[in-house]
Design brief:
By secondary structure, the chain is of the alpha+beta class. The protein has two domains: about 5-270, Beta Polymerase, domain 2, CATH 3.30.460.20; about 280-335. It has helices spanning about 35-45, 65-75, 80-85, 140-150, 155-190, 200-215, 220-230, 235-300, 315-335, and strands at about 5, 5-10, 20-25, 30-35, 55-60, 90-95, 100-105, 120-125, 130-135. Strands 4-3-5-9-8-7-6 form a seven-stranded mixed β-sheet, sandwiched between helices. It has a two-stranded antiparallel sheet with strand order 1-2. Strand 8 and strand 9 (about 130-135) form a beta hairpin. Helix 4 (about 140-150) crosses helix 5 (about 155-190). The longest helix is centred in the C-terminal third of the chain and has 67 residues, at about 235-300. The radius of gyration is 35 Å and the shape is rod-shaped. Mean pLDDT is about 80; it is low at about 1-10. It is found in: Cell membrane. It is a multi-pass membrane protein. Keywords: Cell inner membrane, Cell membrane, Ion transport, Membrane, Transmembrane, Transmembrane helix, Transport, Zinc. Belongs to the CorA metal ion transporter (MIT) (TC 1.A.35) family.
């Protein structure tokens, strides 16, 4: 993989094994970038249970050789491979033979407030190995890679997982902030009576937030269940950090729920505003129709080609008809605009 100024240049491709990137963490040192052959050498060595070194391997599942390579060279449980092919994408974390199998939902690297820009990350975490796999580039994983490339120290795979969950919460916080900005803009246009097409953005935002919450809402509950009975190899500090990240994530989900309610109220206000405008337009149209009714009826009657039409021979006949029409129109206008009696 290419390096720029001593750091890895983020790449979204993969080698022949489907590996996007691999890092070795050893003895409280920054992650060391490994190639596939180096990863294989490390996996083939007997691992000491007291060893503090561990690997993070990140794979591209669209590569045909990824699953075959994982089957041949890692001890991932079958539950992990079954999870890769399940239709359900709801966030969850579960135990499987001293492994943690996690399904995490995240937004794409080029997220553009489209509900379809949400994809899934699959994780398999054990004492000395974290395997992550995705089909599309995701923001949270990119943030974690940037942190590793910047030299941040990680003590265990659980610290990587905790950092990933916090990055996910940060990404969601950014989405909520951007959504709030868009909603504020719509509210400003509503107050200024200049809604134009911006009201359609509310529906898109609401659909996005609903989908995000539907996919992500199970995550805090799954993490809290995990924290009640963590794996034996999970350190106490990791449990504490994971609990904190879970609480932060719960706050973000609460903000998303509040934002959905705000959008709902704003949509109702806009709908009421639009209905009021429609009612006003309908009222004006009705008044115009009522006021035009006398002249239409009289001109229709006077236009009949029959004998006995009054004032047909009178020089002032036209003005007499005009006076009659004007009088009837004034009476109709008075009846239409007359204040209604109110109950006292």
């Amino acid at each position: 993989m290419d390096k720029v100024a001593g750091r890895e240049q983020l790449s979204y491709g993969a080698d022949q094994s489907g590996l996007i990137c691999g890092y070795l963490f050893d003895h409280q040192q920054a992650g060391q970038l490994l190639h596939t052959n180096q990863v294989l050498d490390w996996l083939r060595k007997p691992q000491d249970t007291e060893s503090q070194s561990f690997l993070w391997l990140h794979f591209n599942l669209t590569h045909a050789a990824t699953e075959k390579w994982l089957h041949e060279h890692t001890a991932s449980p079958e539950e992990f491979y079954e999870t890769l092919h399940q239709g359900s994408r709801s966030t969850r974390i579960e135990h499987a033979d001293q492994h943690l199998i996690a399904v995490v939902n995240d937004v794409l690297h080029d997220f553009s407030f489209d509900p379809s820009d949400i994809a899934t990350l699959w994780l398999n975490v054990s004492r000395n190995l974290m395997i992550s796999a995705r089909r599309k580039p995701l923001k949270s994983v990119d943030h974690l890679r940037n942190a590793v490339n910047a030299g941040e120290i990680f003590q265990s795979p659980m610290e990587l997982l905790t950092h990933l969950l916090r990055d996910q919460a940060d990404v969601l916080t950014g989405i909520v902030r951007n959504a709030i900005t868009k909603i504020d803009d719509v509210e400003d246009h509503l107050l200024a009576d200049r809604l134009n097409k911006k009201r359609s953005n509310l529906g898109e935002l609401r659909r996005l937030l609903v989908r995000l919450q539907r996919l992500l809402a199970p995550e805090p509950a799954a993490l809290f269940r995990l924290l009640q009975k963590p794996p034996e190899w999970m350190a106490e500090n990791d449990v504490h950090e994971l609990r904190q990240s879970t609480e932060e994530f719960s706050v973000v989900l609460s903000d998303m729920a509040s934002l959905q309610e705000r959008i709902k109220l704003l949509q109702e206000e806009i709908a009421a505003h639009v209905n009021e405008q429609n009612n006003r337009s309908l009222f004006v149209l009705t008044i115009v129709t009522v006021l035009a009714l006398p002249i239409n009826i009289i001109t229709g009657l006077m236009g009949m080609n029959v004998g006995g039409i009054p004032w047909s021979q009178n020089e002032a006949g036209f003005w007499i008809i005009i006076a009659i029409i004007a009088s009837i129109t004034v009476v109709a206008a008075w009846l239409a605009f007359k204040p209604k009696d109110r109950d006292r």
